[in-house]
Amino acid sequence: MMSPGTITTQRWICESCGMIYDPAEGDPDGGIVPGTAFEDIPDHWVCPACGTRKADFYTSTGPAEPAALAKESEPRPPEPGPRRRAPRA
Ligand SMILES: [Zn+2]
Question: What is this structure's pTM?
């Protein structure tokens, strides 16, 4: 039914200072009204905290999870090479 808040909002993080841009909050001081998707922010917008360009923000979603899980040591498969006996003369 009515379920506000289920909008998938992507948060963007300032590369320089770590400020998080939340589309739900926008950046009123920077002229960005709440509900503005990061993509809709004008390119001349800069981080309100440190002045970093919009291009230097990165999104927190994606497969960029901690490498702890992916760092699994794979066991080596046994070598299937047949044992050859060197022919003795
Ligand atoms: Zn910043």
Answer: 0.58
Q: Measure CA 42 to chain center.
A: 21
Query: What is the average pLDDT score of the chain?
Result: 80
44 alpha carbon to ligand 1 midpoint, in Å? 14
For residues 8 and 70, give the distance between their C-alpha atoms in angstroms, rounded to a whole number. 26
According to DSSP, the β-strands at 57-59 and 20-21 are unpaired
Mean pLDDT, residues 22-33 taken together: 94
d(CA 62, CA 60): 7
Question: Residue for token digits 């503005």?
Answer: 36
Largest CA distance in the chain: 90
DSSP single-letter state for residue 27: B
pLDDT over threshold 60, residue 69: no
Top pLDDT among 28 and 63 is at 28
- How far away, in angstroms, is 63 Cα from ligand 1 center? 23
